[in-house]
């Protein structure tokens, strides 16, 4: 294992006090694991993840007190502080994942999956680690399990007046508007998912669906696939289940938008810049 590691406890990344949130994609010395020997806690899960840029060492910890010198930072909250490849000054640039942030998201995704895959989904036996790859292997029935990735689409819809449809989801913080999104279902193409989700959530039809950019989003296990589409027909009507409000917005009268570091903000930024 290398000298640096990502330490996770639930949805939090653990950082020493002298590392600011803006540098949370930095690995910290693996020696910090010795500090947990001084407090009452379950044995940490220490594992190595293969990666193109070199192996990633991770430490996954059960809920409990932290040793002195470490603090917990929610991974999702911290993403908006990182350079996640979203160029605010040049939003026409397509979303590309910053390699160091990508390593953090990969580590976080697999750390969560390991907590949820300790037992075989077929026979219930306790899994072992498959050699040489991030996978679980059942020693009883031989079932192999890989980290789950759930594809989801997110779409910016533009009408003939060059306005964008933004919506407020019930799960959002008050007054924040973003794009229509939803999970891909079995048997669907991604383009079909775009059309269905938009019709279900805001009651309109779209055309000219085209792929723009993607982003890993391990909250808990998504891959966000960003699209753009043109309004075709229908009258906006929020479904009232997920979407509370949806309307057309012009560039000079925008609501509060999602934070930076997300593919939704990237798509909105490209529309604002006129580069979609």
Characterization of the model:
There is one protein chain. The chain is of the alpha+beta class. It has 3 domains: 4-111; 117-147, no CATH class; 150-272, Nucleoside Triphosphate Pyrophosphohydrolase (Alpha-Beta Complex), CATH 3.90.79.10. It has helices spanning 75-79, 99-116, 190-202, 263-272, and strands at residues 4-9, 12-16, 28-29, 45-49, 56-61, 70-74, 128-129, 136-137, 144-145, 150-158, 164-169, 180-183, 205-217, 222-233, 243-249. Strands 1, 2, 3, 4, 5 and 6 form a 6-stranded mixed sheet that branches. Strands 10, 11, 12, 13, 14 and 15 form a 6-stranded mixed sheet that branches. The protein has a 3-stranded antiparallel sheet with strand order 7-8-9, with no helix packed on it.
């Amino acid at each position: 294992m290398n000298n640096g590691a990502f330490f996770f406890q639930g949805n939090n990344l653990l950082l020493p006090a002298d590392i600011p949130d803006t540098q949370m994609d930095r690995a910290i010395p693996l020696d910090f694991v010795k500090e947990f020997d001084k407090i009452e806690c379950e044995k940490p899960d220490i594992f190595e993840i293969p990666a193109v840029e070199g192996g990633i060492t991770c430490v996954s910890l059960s809920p409990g007190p932290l040793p002195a010198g470490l603090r917990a930072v929610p991974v999702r909250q911290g993403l908006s502080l990182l350079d996640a490849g979203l160029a605010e000054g040049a939003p026409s640039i397509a979303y590309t994942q910053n390699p160091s942030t990508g390593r953090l998201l990969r580590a976080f995704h697999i750390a969560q999956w390991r907590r949820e895959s300790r037992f075989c989904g077929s026979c219930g036996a306790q899994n072992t680690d498959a050699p040489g790859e991030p996978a679980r292997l059942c020693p009883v029935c031989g079932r192999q399990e890989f980290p789950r990735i759930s594809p989801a689409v997110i779409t910016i819809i533009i009408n003939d007046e060059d306005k964008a449809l933004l919506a407020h989801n019930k799960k959002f913080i008050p007054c924040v508007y973003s794009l229509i999104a939803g999970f891909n279902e079995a048997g669907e193409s991604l383009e079909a998912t775009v059309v269905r989700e938009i019709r279900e959530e805001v009651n309109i039809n779209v055309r000219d669906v085209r792929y723009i950019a993607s982003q890993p989003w391990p909250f808990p296990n998504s891959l966000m696939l960003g699209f753009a589409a043109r309004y075709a027909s229908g009258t906006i009507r929020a479904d009232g289940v997920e979407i509370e409000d949806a309307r057309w917005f012009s560039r000079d009268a925008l609501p509060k938008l999602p934070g930076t570091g997300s593919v939704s903000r990237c798509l909105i930024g490209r529309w604002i810049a006129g580069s979609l």
